[in-house]
Amino acid sequence: MLKLLQRFFKADALTANTGHRVLFDLTLPETLKKFMVATDKDFFGGFSEAQVEHHPDGFARFKGHLSTTIPEGSKMERSGFALLRSRSQQMRRIDSPYLDIGDTNTLEFEVRGDGRPYIINLQSSSLHDEDLYQAFLYTRGGPHWQTVQIPLADFLLTHMGYVQNEQTLLSHERIRTIGFLLADQTDGPFQLDVRRISATTHRKQITRLDVNGAQMTSPLPKDPSRASEATNQTEEEKGGR
Questions:
Q1: Burial (CB count within 10 angstroms: exposed 0-12, middle 13-18, buried 19+), residue 13
Q2: Is residue 111 within 8 Å of 146, Cβ to Cβ?
Q3: Which residues, in sequence order, are CB contacts of 164 under 8 Å at separation 6+?
């Protein structure tokens, strides 16, 4: 019996959290100054609307209305995206252009969603401005908060929204921005509440995991969205808000 208990606790220790740092504490109103919002309306003349506001209960609320309507006369084949993204370190006049996540290997998101699938965008140093590392963030809907952990190894390299055949691992030392992208081609209102974005470390890598209980293992689609053509632009190019 003693040996069984020792094995149990040893196995549990292998997956233990060995480091944790908060990257963005969105319970604080001033943290919103470090973020920007963009939609297809801003870049392509689309019809999606979005905004972010600080809620009195201590979280950021990203909300709006997604529209897939293509503007008349546009050459776009599809439309409809909304993005909440951290501003680049350079725009905030910080010496290093990269987020400091130390030696962590997992990103953690405290969120409360509407049941829609969001995409986490990580902008890294790359040869191509349109490159993003992406992974899905699935929300349950309803009143309960989720703490979702996604290992950096689970993020897939995409170019202009297309998953690349040749994948390179994301360097934890080269992350410039973190964003929440909604581009599920479903018209209608959306709402995503965010408390904190953190970096953490697990000795044993996990698959996408909702630490409240659900495993999250669905792969990215072949074409999650071409929104990255716009979402990787800097605030200077866009005149960000």
A1: exposed
A2: yes
A3: 156, 157, 158
Q: Which amino acid would we find at residue 76?
A: M
Please say whether the dihedral angle defined by the alpha carbons of residues 72, 68, 43 and 161, taken in this order, is positive or negative. negative
Distance CA 177, CA 94 (A): 13
Structure tokens at 97: 């252009």
Q: How far apart are CA 229 and CA 223, in angstroms?
A: 13
Distance of CA 18 to the CA centre of its chain: 22
pLDDT of the residue at 25: 99
Candidates 87, 105, 78, 84; CA nearest to 173 is 105
φ, ψ of residue 22 in degrees (nearest 5): -85, 125
Residue 7: DSSP 8-state: H
Which candidate, 198, 118, 131, places its Cα nearest to that of 158? Answer: 131
Helix (H) or strand (E) holding 94: none
Bridge partners (DSSP) listed for residue 17: 202
Ranges of H-type helices in 72-193 = none
Query: Consecutive 10-residue runs of the chain (241 residues): their mean pLDDT?
Result: 44 52 97 98 95 99 98 89 90 70 92 98 79 94 94 88 78 87 98 98 60 42 46 49 46
* pLDDT of res. 110: 98
Both tokens of 66, joined, read 């997604």
How far, CA to CA in Å, does 9 sit from each of 18, 149, 161, 198?
Answer: 15, 22, 42, 26
Residue 232's pLDDT is 56
User: 36 exposed, middle or buried (CB, 10 Å; 0-12, 13-18, 19+)?
Assistant: buried
In the chain, the domains with their CATH numbers are: 18-62+89-181+195-211 (2.60.120)
